[in-house]
Amino acid sequence: MEIKSIISALFLLQSIINVAIAQSPDFGIYKCRNNTNFTTPTFSKTLETALASLTGNVAAHGGFYHSSAGNSTGTPVNAVALCRGDIGPEECEDCVKSSIPSLRRNCPNQKQAAAWYSNCMVRYSDHEILGVIDDWTFDELWNTAIVSDVGEFNKALNDLTTRLQPEAAGGDSFRKMAVGNITFGPDPWTIYGMMQCTPDLSRDQCRKCLDDTITEIHGCCSGSVAARVFYPNCFFRYSNEHFYHDPPLISGPSPPSKFTSGKKSNTGRTVYVVVPVIGVSLGLIAIGVWFFLTKTHPNDAVSKKGSITSFSSLLAEQKSTSRNDSVEMEIVTIQSLQYDLRTIEVATNYFSLKNKIGKGGFGFVYKGVLPKGQEVAVKRLSETSGQGVEEFVNEAVLVAKLQHRNLVRLLGFCHEAKEKILIYEYVPNKSLDYFLFDPVKHGHLDWTTRWKIIGGITRGMLYLHEDSRLRIIHRDLKASNILLDQDMNAKISDFGLARIFGVDQTLGNTKKIAGTLGYMAPEYAMHGHFSVKSDVFSFGVIVLEIVSGRRNSSFYERDDIGDLLLFAWKKWMSGSPLELLDPSVAESYSKNEVIRCINIGLLCVQEEADERPSMASILNMLNNNSITLPTPNKPPYFLSKGLVLDISGDVDKSIPMVNSEDESSISKMHPR
User: Fold this and answer.
1) pLDDT exceeding 90 applies to what percent of the chain?
2) Class of domain 139-260
3) Could you tell me the pTM of the whole model?
């Protein structure tokens, strides 16, 4: 009876798991073009008509379908659905059908939007879509696990993309897709890849679109064991796991009618779904048998210890061979981040002065070249630094988990003997302050570049505050901690002072006020209260510095002006905000963008934290000109008067990762 009860319970649990597997939602990425909003119900109805015609047609037409709705009296709407070329018609239809309502919820009033799922892509526009490369947006996903030999891995990935790209671009009007793999290394490692374009593109257009995905993959995800990049017309995905049907459920150029052939599709579907269920079932049965033995015959269980141990060993061996195991992947990640001191010494020519590229409160930063030729920035903790092991470990562990194109990427660390070293990606154009505050070099930053930098900082901070797995408070955001890559894209650096918050946590306290004068929010500098809104304050200071080309600290000794924040507010209230603008961009600036940035900057530096916008709101303000911004109140003015010197308790100096020699923005405060 007990055996029957256990078996019944196991089958019930298995059925629940089967249902959960069948109903598990796929991930969704949504992009809304916020500068193209509609306000009339007519466009909404036209859009619904265009999207509705995709379902029921995309599978019947081979996984790609285009629809249009509207007439000469209204704005036409074009919609497109593309399914992954290796899946069957049922998966294709289900993906498109479920993605449309989600896309409408996430982009309720935009004239252009796109959604990407693992199995399909849906997008619409009030402009022509067919045969047009649309690069207004893209997105990427990646696994945070890093391979041990990034150089060798990237070379193999390049070889794979070189093979797949022309194959995908050479497809016909039915399908432009390529899949394949490459194995490399002494311990064989395989990369599986897939590229696909919408089949309405020409060969050259498809090649161009895939070029962009390859460039983006190397920019965001170098060394990641798996990554995906999506553009409106194409995508590229690779993984160390076999993720596609090989051969595809629909093989080669075939007429659309063959797409609905059920036999091959059903076979593939059975393998894809039932195999995981069988694995789960076997595991449950094994647990049930063990439970039965220990529950009904405890003495026998002890006497059969050897048999049970052998069974456990078999399970452990099976687990150790599984590349899907998250624990094993975590171990591999940690091991792959560790560098020995000898490697770092050779890479930097034994920390030669010729290789020194920066200096900050943390210590010196050196340029290095790893054995495979990869350029890196090596951040060496000074033995006399006020910051110690706690901040070092904090930054190493924290930054390794953060992956975003607007954050400097941590490649590894070394903690050996007395050395504490962090190895970052090398960012060639040094820091924002290196250009912004130099009387000659600031001319390299035209308004278009400054606008792009502001947008990059915004997206990076939004990721830290809301989009990463943890809520991260940077606490030392400033111009010298914004690095610029070869295309002058902003990358936020230096997480030595960062703090991790719980998802629902909004405020923290500290007795150690660590940061940089001029960028600290008043509630943090005076009371030790920090939150996402204290980062927003620092962001506002940076925005005003980018617009004006002047340091906030450059105003401190001029009592008739106050500081940059007060100066900007006075210009705003007098109706002459453009007088704040850096004269070097007078020939290239956009009046609306400059005024909007000044307004946003002043909103960010409000004295009351609750009155400051969130980073999500700031991004919306930057991208949506239809939003009316509120009038800012007078910002606080306290730093130049020495009020912060009344702080009690220990005060640390900042620990920036800078690529310039200027330390004038680094301050160490002492209580009176």
Assistant:
1) 36
2) alpha beta
3) 0.50
